[in-house]
């Protein structure tokens, strides 16, 4: 009987080790924190951790920045992300990870971000780089852009996007699409169910407010 119990204990221990090993294997690193200011939290598998410089960011994780906080991260796909204060940002998939993802996708739930995604792609068939928001999807084919909700108090369901350098930014939802073809030009989505507005060159006040929201 004692040998029987010992055998079951060993088997149970082996199973637990296997489960834990699988859980660890599923935590895929998507990027690393390269700059940090203020309190920033990382939520992974319902666990909350305070981020530190050099920490890894994982697929499926949610990043939450506090008041006056900033975060810069370099992702495995080569892109550089900067998050402003009171921002919630989800890492869905990143090209170049062990997940073998074709393209990269993220979600902006609130707040603002800036992204530098590298060399512009020459065609629309290139792997996508997208940020999903509550009102539209931001698609990028290689550029420097800013996107955010509630810029200048416009409302939590109002999305603004501006192209800062490069080319190949589009904003789309089920009601339409707007392509940004000029540096300094942006578009606004004024709520759920509303098509992206026409491309407009931003004035100094609006552009300055956007850059300040992710500035250091």
Mean pLDDT: 88
Overall shape: it is: globular
Radius of gyration computed on alpha carbons: 20 Å
Proper CATH architecture = Sandwich
Termini separation comes to 67 Å
Structural class: alpha+beta
Integer tally of domains: 1
Poorly predicted runs are: 1-25
Number of strands: 18
Following the backbone from N to C, one meets helices and strands in this order, namely: HEEEEEEEEEEEEEEEEEEH
**Strand neighbour order, sheet with most strands:** 4-1-6-7-10-13-14-17-18
The level of helicity is: 10-25%
Number of H- or I-type helical stretches: 2
Give an overview of the whole structure.
This protein is α+β, with helices and mostly antiparallel strands and about 220 residues long. The protein has a single domain, classed as Jelly Rolls. It has helices spanning about 1-25, 205-215; strands at about 30-35, 40-45, 45-50, 55-60, 60-65, 70-75, 80-85, 90-95, 105-110, 110-115, 130, 135-140, 145-150, 160-165, 170-175, 175-180, 185-190, 200. The longest helix is centred in the N-terminal third of the chain and has 24 residues, at about 1-25. It is globular, with a radius of gyration of 20 Å.
């Amino acid at each position: 009987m004692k040998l029987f119990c010992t055998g079951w204990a060993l088997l149970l221990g082996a199973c637990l080790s296997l489960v834990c090993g699988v859980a660890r294997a599923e935590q895929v690193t998507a990027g690393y924190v390269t700059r940090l200011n203020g309190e920033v939290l990382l939520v992974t598998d319902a666990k909350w951790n305070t981020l530190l410089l050099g920490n890894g960011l994982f697929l499926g994780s949610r990043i939450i920045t506090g008041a006056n906080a900033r975060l810069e991260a370099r992702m495995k796909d080569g892109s550089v992300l900067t998050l402003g204060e009171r921002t919630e940002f989800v890492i869905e998939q990143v090209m170049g990870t062990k997940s073998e993802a074709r393209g990269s996708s993220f979600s902006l739930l609130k707040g603002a971000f800036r992204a530098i995604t590298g060399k512009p792609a020459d065609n629309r068939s290139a792997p996508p780089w997208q940020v999903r928001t509550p009102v539209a999807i931001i698609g990028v084919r290689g550029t420097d852009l800013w996107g955010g909700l509630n810029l200048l108090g416009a409302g939590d369901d109002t999305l603004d996007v501006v192209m800062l350098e490069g080319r190949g930014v589009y904003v789309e939802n089920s009601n339409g699409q707007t392509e940004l073809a000029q540096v300094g030009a942006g578009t606004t989505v004024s709520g759920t169910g509303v098509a992206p507005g026409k491309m407009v060159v931003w004035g100094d006040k609006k552009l300055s407010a956007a850059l300040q929201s992710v500035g250091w």
